């Protein structure tokens, strides 16, 4: 029973079918019909004109976005525990040619305007200090918290006031939107987000993430930099097909909702006292003694030892109900 | 009738089936069973112990390889018309952090030791000049020529004598090996190649190329740099599956042979006088007047206007026999 | 009365005289007689065979050193308040092509092995995390503390145990050595330092710092990278001349001692209660109310408002005795 | 008798005196009075409002200029034999983060619009090809040719028509202006030059070159990148002093004229038949057999063996008349 990572889950049948359906010769790179329809598909979803690019990984999406918002000699404010700071092997530094990540603090890996301002206010405005150029937030956060539209808007207002770009790492955007129940637009461009990394791989996709530019004029340069980074696949139609399959009939949202529901049931089983963070999306961080962790593993549950006395469980879009119930019960029984 | 590019061809059923078969949850990234078996699979094929990494594009494979062989402050000798010099948007410069490509000349985009030495010999050995660190050759070349094992070995000897690494861009390695009829080992490590970009996407794959390290100690650093470049896919098993499917029963070679045979038939149809380069793999460069090109297009043939009076036709692994015969006949009839 | 920065002080007459004496035509770049004698001069000083390179700024010295010790995809542990982290505009990231600075804590900007280990121990050993490659310490620190040979040796032992390089930013190396009273070798290579940025500009020089390699085999690559960074001056003999003038008869040490002595007198005037940090070199951090700061400025003292309620005074190699006494008295009188 | 390089010549007394006169404490970095007056001084010289920055080397000046005109993913058209392409160890690639130099041909290392257009016209406008962003010309060229204002203007017009920036490497700008006899403005901004590297080191300076921005809005970013590259000297006033000394009373121009006159006399001595290139500035390329070269060396002349059968002589701002006459006579006597 796999609660280790949503990265390890299968691909949805709809996605596989769409990929198979794309298996006729077409134009190479992103000149095919499916790729060319991405701008429209995302513009519909976000209720405004956007430009969109597919890439194969969230790391590439994030790093290309940051490269578009931050020159080599400036910095990006992000949470200390953000994926871009901790789990991408320095990809943001690589793609930006050495920009500096500027870590800020906040409970549950969630950034608030005060924490961001505290980082920026310390930076004297002279050539000796690296100046910030952008803010990056993760929604849902590394610890499964989500931002309301108002919370993002407050950060967006700060970004505008300071002349900074705003990026959202939405590796689990589906879980975040499903959790808050808002329109995708509300938590992105209406709240000041310039570029969104819209994740599909953790949510039933295979190898396609989207970069969504709410300032569409940014996309042309990123398209060049995507090629320069080796991220322009020659058979791009199979990536576009994945995205279209998940956007159709809001399948992405249904998947996100399913994973969230599973997590909520597990959280209820665990009981509030065990939870390290509120469970708002599809991650459950639980206080576990070593013996308890061993007992759960003995029952067949796979999960991540996050820190001493703390374990992470992640539910996937297709998590079997029986597994969810079993884990909830096992946690309740501890 | 598509002779525009082997990049636009479909994916083979065997590959699609292998991907579907990989659709059970497994470890993320490259910790899955299929990815872990790649070293063995390529070691068997190359009759020596190698290390292998999958990536999604040939550009990424080439650039990661060059990064492993060349520090930022040195250079890579390659043909002036090489893909790495002309068609990868500066990816080699990006991945190497600014190494210099050092173009050499040669008929049919094929490098000979004399041409390489001519470039190197001009470079004074002081700190003012960028010093070479590696040689990169393309097999089959941009113009469809192939290297014999002896030809590669001569370059390998030069590389060793000058202390340079040797990379082979094998985007069409299958066509090259099928053409020469040698063992894959003969034209690679036995001839002094350090790293091979082994292409599958043009040859029936979807989104998987392999980096094969004949000096396996190079792979660990490249694995880090692959992640740093956003090229470590979280569901890597679907890439490994593609490669295993094409390696099984030498399907890769059968595909390469099929494309080559189609090209040979078209070349015979065109007649030697029309051929700009000898046809040794799956590309046919043909002298065509504007009127002739228009006439062929009117008959439904799609191809690339390479240069004034010159067109490029590329055959794919699954090129329909009828299309091939039709093109051969049409060219003969001009 | 200038206590703002040792960067603003004049150049010593000995240095100016040596530069004038170098004003005959000689070989360009670093092929001149003075440049060629640097290795010997520093080898004598450090009682071991070293290689040395001149550069024009401490930022260049530090960044070239870090580039030699850390590849683009790894990191450098340093104090959060280190010059390389805060005051060099991202030069370390530029020269290393995007390596990550990994800030550690410690009173007075001084690193202790425990603090370094605490940073490293959090870094999981996988491709997702940037791995450390080096440690950089500053001696004297940003707040004027100095390291004893034993303290450096403890860090050196940690570095060796973890396979990390060790760099010392010695922008105020003279003040540090003068303060501790040890041999230069004791606090550098004998304690495990691999590369030293040996500062002369703050200490009576004009535009010459030295990079001293205790692993001389590192110097050849850095010589290339120095040129590539535009730091190989064509009339290098004027830089070498500065260094030789300051090394001669240990003038560098006399200068450092003079500045330290001035600082000690000012510290005594201020009284221990006012001192934010122990005064061990040539910087005095003093608690000052706004009114007190204004009063001192009204008396003609120039200094830096470091933080609310805190001011920094820096003494220079040639600080006039009268100015020192006046400041000591003024602080005592507050 | 040194005709090896103008890089090896002494520093003029006026420069040394100005440096000594700057030896009072002042603000650090470029906040001092001399540095602050540079914009005005160059604005006067160029008869328009410019922004200027000092740096210590021509390589740094060129590379910072190119970084301002060209993003990492584009390219700079320059002559194949340009200093930036051949003699700066890849510094342009370093400072631009991997932009591509795009070599064009032309007699005497001089670029003409046709040659530039020929390079650009071959570059298909798609994401696979590196697109040009700037043109860089060298005046005087590597082979001592100079551009007339009309010639630069033709390149400037091409640059504007193609949307490219235009940089002039003026390491020997003094020799070029002295040779043509135009106003400095005529051959720079009036002809479309955006940024000039204005060399002083080869012309009586010690360690100061100027970056002159005819689009002053470019300077702020370059000031940041100068610091980031370790090129902001903390005692910058000594660099500014050098520049002011050479600008005063057009000393720079007198020096350039002197070197040119010496070269002209040597060229006359050599006779037109021996000259590889017309002698328009301070370099003389002469056809010499090995025996002749040896004979000249035996007479005490130092020079550079440029290529088989070809030697380079460079005159300096202070070349002694006797040396010049001796060389002219010796060449005439061959």
Automatic annotation (TrEMBL), chains A, B, C, D:
Keywords: Lyase, Pyridoxal phosphate. Its EC number is 4.1.2.48. Its cofactor is pyridoxal 5'-phosphate. It comes from the Bacteria. One of its GO terms (molecular function) is lyase activity. It is an enzyme of class 4 (lyase). GO terms for biological process: amino acid metabolic process. Pfam families: Beta_elim_lyase (PF01212). The keyword ATP-binding does not apply. Residues 3-289 form the Aromatic amino acid beta-eliminating lyase/threonine aldolase domain. The keyword Lyase applies. Coiled coil: none annotated. Homotetramer. Belongs to the threonine aldolase family. This is Low specificity L-threonine aldolase. It comes from Edaphosphingomonas haloaromaticamans.
């Amino acid at each position: 029973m796999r609660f280790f990572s949503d990265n390890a889950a299968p691909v949805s049948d709809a996605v596989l079918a769409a990929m198979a359906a794309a298996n006729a010769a077409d134009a190479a790179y992103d000149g095919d019909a499916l790729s060319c329809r991405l701008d429209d598909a995302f513009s519909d979803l976000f209720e405004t004109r956007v430009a969109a690019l597919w890439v194969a990984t969230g790391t590439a999406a994030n790093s290309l976005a940051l490269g578009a918002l931050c020159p080599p000699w400036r910095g990006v404010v992000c949470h200390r525990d953000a994926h871009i700071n901790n789990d991408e092997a320095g990809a943001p530094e690589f793609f930006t040619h050495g920009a500096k990540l500027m870590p800020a603090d906040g409970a549950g890996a969630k950034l608030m305007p005060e924490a961001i301002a505290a980082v920026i206010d310390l930076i004297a405005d002279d050539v000796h200090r690296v100046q910030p150029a952008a803010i990056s937030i993760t929604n849902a956060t590394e610890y499964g918290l989500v931002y309301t539209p108002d919370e993002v808007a407050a950060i967006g207002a700060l970004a505008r006031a300071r002349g900074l770009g705003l990026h959202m790492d939405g590796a689990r955007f589906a879980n975040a939107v499903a959790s808050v129940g808002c329109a995708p637009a509300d938590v992105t461009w209406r709240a000041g987000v310039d570029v969104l990394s819209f994740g599909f791989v953790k949510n039933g996709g295979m190898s396609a993430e989207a970069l969504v530019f709410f300032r569409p004029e940014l996309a042309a340069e990123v398209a060049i930099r995507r090629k320069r980074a080796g991220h322009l696949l020659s058979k791009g139609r199979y990536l576009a097909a994945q995205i279209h399959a998940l956007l159709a009939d809001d399948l992405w949202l249904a998947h996100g909702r399913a994973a969230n529901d599973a997590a909520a049931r597990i959280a209820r089983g665990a009981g509030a006292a065990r939870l390290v963070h509120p469970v708002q999306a599809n991650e459950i961080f639980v206080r576990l003694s070593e013996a308890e962790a061993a007992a759960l593993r003995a029952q067949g549950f796979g999960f991540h030892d996050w820190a001493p006395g703390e374990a992470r469980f992640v539910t996937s879009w297709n998590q079997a109900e029986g597994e969810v119930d079993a884990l909830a019960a096992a946690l309740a029984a501890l």
